[in-house]
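Subject: sequence -> structure tokens, single chain

Hey, anyone have a minute? Need the predicted structure for the following. Not urgent.
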Amino acid sequence: MRSRHHLPLIGAILLGLVATGCSSASDATSSTVRQASPKRAVGLPKLADLPAHAYLSGPLHATGGQYMTDDLGRTVQLHGVNAVYKLAPYRMTVTPGKVNTLNDDDAIRIARLGFNVVRLGVLWEGIEPGVGGPNQPGVCTPGVGHDPHMWNATVAARYLDEVAKVVAALGRHHVYALIDMHQDVWNQLFSGEGMPQWATCTDANPITILPGRWSANYSNPAVVSSFNHLFDNDVVGNLQGEYQRSWTAIARRFATNPWIVGYDPLNEPADYAPLHLHHRWYAPRLSCLYGGSSGAIRQIGVDAPLPCPVGSPSTGVIQAIQRVDHEHLVFPEVDNASHGRQPYLLGRINLPRIVMNFHDYCAQRSGVTGNPTDLEACSSAELATMVHRTQERDQMGSKVTPAGPAMLMTEFGATDSHSLAEMLAMDTTTLGLGWMWWSWRYYNDPTGSSAEALINSEQQLSPSAAAISTTYPVAIAGTPLSSVLDPVDGEYALTYLPNPKVKAPTTIYVSSNTYRAGYCTVVVGGTITSHPGSGLLAVNNAPGADVTVIRITPHACVGKVSRPAKV
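Reply:
Had a minute. Here:
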């Protein structure tokens, strides 16, 4: 059985080193400093309390390696939530009192919980609703694609105007948005959402809903046919061309927006034709949807392209986005069938600004509430997925990013189990893995339950909210070596190799849930520049320091501080 009190060996060693005043830094350039916060609840500072560069702002970058970076060269960690409205009008709104509201009030609560990103859902049906229902001959007849005349620029612009208002509300509180083109089991005809009815081609398979949980419809023949025609792009409706048209409009609209972290091209896609090549399994049609048939996505371990359907355009949705947005990141998702220890199924993406994107849920969950039916088995399975994906990332290097892409877990959680959330928070911290929790609110989700939400209908926090609102490094002025969180004792320790070229501070969100009576900070190889008791701890690297260690404990600082010795 996995212990809730486990700490990685390196973390335990580092905790011991800093507690005794030892450091790897030179005596001449570093000393141990302590700062005690007032004996009051920790509070997130107002924007004026710290220099602007203490907060994340501006575009993020992914030039290779596990971590994203900011304009100041700091390693960035994203913690956030999902907000997707799956019913008409298929988007969030800033209008108060609506079931799909996401406005300044939400953004303030999100920021105070330490979250700095929202995976914000948009739906193809919302931006390009078109006209008519499924199986239209002018769309679904086999043949070479042409314009199906479903695009309405005015409708798309009005839709994106409303999305932009939500992005602006989040940005006012230093919260990024990851634009997510969301779908589940194709669309509402099959108990899901996302794709326009006009783009639904079922090959005469009846449009029915299979009994049982909504996800059973991934095996619905009508759903399978609809996905197949999208991936094969083999009907006159030119489905991939229209999908790219929608994405081009989104990316063009937000290309210069500083509060967009990037784009998620397709939520939980289902490619039903996996292929085994050179001892590995792939989802080639999904890869070709992302990167086209011109060879941008290659096999792993073999410098060869993945085979694409005849109807695949030469460039995919990633290139469509990057043609109009030359700055923001793209987060292509793995096939929905890939989970646990199963292979990632995407090849090496030889394109810039790519972030490896995956979801993580266990099988030991209630199909109704999403809560674990076996806590230890569920948490261990989800940890195994995180570790497996981290190992796979190392194999995803391309000519553009030889060290492999950055990575982000854009969905996990979906539970009000405090115990499971606590374990997952500890594990993601140890792995240095950024994440987005599912979800912020329930939003009448047709494919979810109210137990998944961090905020209930009475505006109260779920038990899981306290568990995931943890202390973590928002931006690190160097290369992280170890990040250790003990949710039981409340101790947190970060160790990193300082980058002398980075002049901005390392910033750590300090959780008010953990340190309600204040906290003690011990730093080796750096100087604390934030106010005592600040909810955002800022530490400048000490000149010439070889290593920086920051330890936070939920009690007053005690004892004398000695000058560190070399180790």
